[in-house]
Design a protein that fits this description.
disordered N terminus; ABC transporter substrate-binding protein; globular; D-Maltodextrin-Binding Protein, domain 2; signal; 5-stranded mixed beta sheet; alpha/beta; 10 strands; 47% helix; 329 residues
């Protein structure tokens, strides 16, 4: 065999070996359940689309399970490994006496993600304008509703006396109800709030996130037994999220929008970028996955003032920052 043929032969063999090695990389499947699909969770979609999870050897099977109660049921039953949901759900479950404690191990968002949308355009909005109005609120016992009540009370409004408060509509149907004519004001997540502005259905007049301060609004949690059995998976998962959090704050909003657009195919990319920028400006995306004790206490204060806190829970009992601290160094 001539030398050049031998070289080509060896190069071909090398390529086959390299491709085989890449193809044989062992991937660990992780079933993740998100409580809703929202641009509010941009870092999660970035971690998937940019391949951060894949580089950690994790294959993410993502499902959307509307409602915190349903998401937690899936977690407790083993239908999913990790839940992305409000930290308050871990308190509810623990108060009911769970055999396998739930641990919050990585924080994704650190403020409320809802906005106050008015049916009419208001140039100089004041919270007192809500008094006597019909307000389409969020589901009782959920973080959006509790933060909403916390903010209203902060501005001297008793939501159960000063408003015609509607809370009997399923989370997934609230936006549709408002679009159909129910309520003068509504509490909405993005991108729905901005879509309603575009379509002239409503107008964003205030942010509940900027009013309520930092809270562990949306957190990754898992059963204690899962984290004990798969600490390597938890660390790799958290590292991918941290990389995505960095990307969301460091990259132009347009680049972030491009990365997450596959998860919002029916939403215009310019609108996605606008929403990303809005959430970044009020620092709704957590800048690292560490859930600190001050945020935990603020969460319980909000729940307590809403009359929804079963009992105060020790930070150390329900929060594990081992992985978040390690990847944030």
């Amino acid at each position: 065999m001539k030398w050049w043929k031998l070289s080509l032969f060896l190069a071909a063999i090398g390529a086959v070996i390299l491709l085989s090695a890449c193809g044989d990389k062992e991937m660990t499947k992780v079933k993740v359940g998100e409580v809703t699909r929202s641009i509010f969770y941009a870092p999660q979609y970035v971690a998937i689309s940019k391949g951060y999870f894949e580089e950690e050897g994790l294959e993410i099977e993502l499902s959307t399970i509307p409602g915190g109660d349903k998401t937690m049921t899936a977690l407790l039953s083993g239908g999913i490994d990790i839940a992305l949901v409000g930290a308050e759900t871990s308190i509810y479950v623990t108060a009911q006496g769970a055999n396998d404690p739930i641990k919050n191990f990585a924080q994704l968002t650190q403020t409320d993600g809802t906005f106050l949308v008015s049916r009419k355009k208001i140039d100089d909005f004041k919270w007192e304008m809500l008094k006597g109005s019909t307000f389409l609120g969020q589901r009782k016992g959920g973080m959006p509703q509790m933060v909403g009540e916390f903010v209203l009370k902060k501005h001297g409004i008793d939501p159960h006396k000063d408003l015609n408060l509607i809370q009997n509509i399923e989370f997934a149907n609230i936006a549709t109800a408002f679009a159909s004519g129910t309520g003068e004001y509504v509490q909405l997540f993005e991108p729905t709030a901005s879509v309603f502005e575009q379509e002239g259905i409503g107008h964003v007049v205030a942010s509940f996130g900027t009013e309520s301060g930092h809270v562990p609004y949306t957190v990754y949690m898992a059963k204690e037994s899962y984290l004990a059995k798969h600490p390597d998976v938890a660390e790799k998962f958290t590292r991918a999220i941290k990389r995505a959090q960095d990307f969301v704050y460091e990259a132009p909003a347009e680049e972030v929008a491009k990365a997450i657009q596959p998860f919002f195919e029916d939403t215009d990319i310019e609108l996605i970028a606008k929403v990303v920028e809005r959430y970044r400006e009020q620092e709704s995306y957590a800048k690292n996955p560490i859930l600190d004790e001050e945020e935990w206490n603020n969460l319980q204060d909000i729940m307590e003032k809403a009359g929804e806190l079963p009992k105060r829970m020790d930070y150390e009992k329900l929060v594990d920052t081992t992985f978040a601290e390690k990847v944030s160094k």
